[in-house]
Design brief:
Elements: E1 4-9, H1 11-16, H2 19-28, E2 32-39, H3 43-49, H4 59-66, E3 71-77, H5 81-89, H6 102-106, E4 115-117, H7 121-131
Antiparallel strand pairs: 1-3, 1-4, 2-3
Helix pairs in contact: 3-4
The protein binds adenosine-5'-triphosphate and magnesium ion (MG).
Adenosine-5'-triphosphate is lined by residues 53, 58, 61-62, 92, 110-111, 113, 116-117, 119.
């Protein structure tokens, strides 16, 4: 499983119509897409997904945003997928994201930052199973 990670193209990016460009960048970077679907999360589903952040001051804002519009959930495969996907995403705050990263190009703010990526192999497995059944992965 260490060659898999979980990603989300967040509601801000789908709303702006840049999800196609982001998917192209993912493919160009050498990832294989093993699972992908467009979903509109309920508030409860977003709260469950981001439960680790429930004590943080931005939890309400974050879960409201993540349930505000459709997003694309993805299972991505590449060698060292977790750090490779985080490198392509760039820093959480787009103001600090490096040139060539998705957040530099597509994020609007620290909250509406275009993409999500798992931060460890363990969390990738948990996050994949939160949104995908085994049958949905190719
Ligand atoms: P993600 O988990 O979405 O991939 P990340 O790992 O870079 O992002 P985290 O610290 O896990 O960053 O924060 C989760 C998400 O919460 C961020 O992507 C962002 O949308 C939101 N967030 C983080 N910090 C802030 C903040 N100070 N104000 C508003 N929203 C924030
Ligand atoms: Mg995170």
């Amino acid at each position: 499983m260490s060659n898999l990670t979980f990603g989300i193209i967040k509601p801000d990016a789908v709303r702006k119509g840049v999800h196609g460009s982001i998917i192209q960048r993912i493919l160009d970077d050498g990832f294989q897409i093993r699972g992908m679907k467009l979903i509109h999360q309920s508030r409860k589903q977003a709260e469950g997904f981001y439960a680790v952040h429930r004590e943080r001051p931005f939890f309400g804002e974050l879960t409201k945003f993540m349930s505000s519009a459709p997003c694309i959930v993805m299972v991505l495969e590449k060698e060292n997928a977790v750090p490779e996907w985080r490198n392509l995403m760039g820093a959480t705050n787009p103001a600090e994201a490096e040139e060539g990263t998705l957040r530099k190009e597509f994020a609007s703010s620290i909250g509406e930052n275009a993409v999500h990526g798992s931060d460890s192999v363990e969390n990738a497995a948990i996050e994949i199973s939160y949104f995908f059944s085994k049958l949905e992965l190719v």
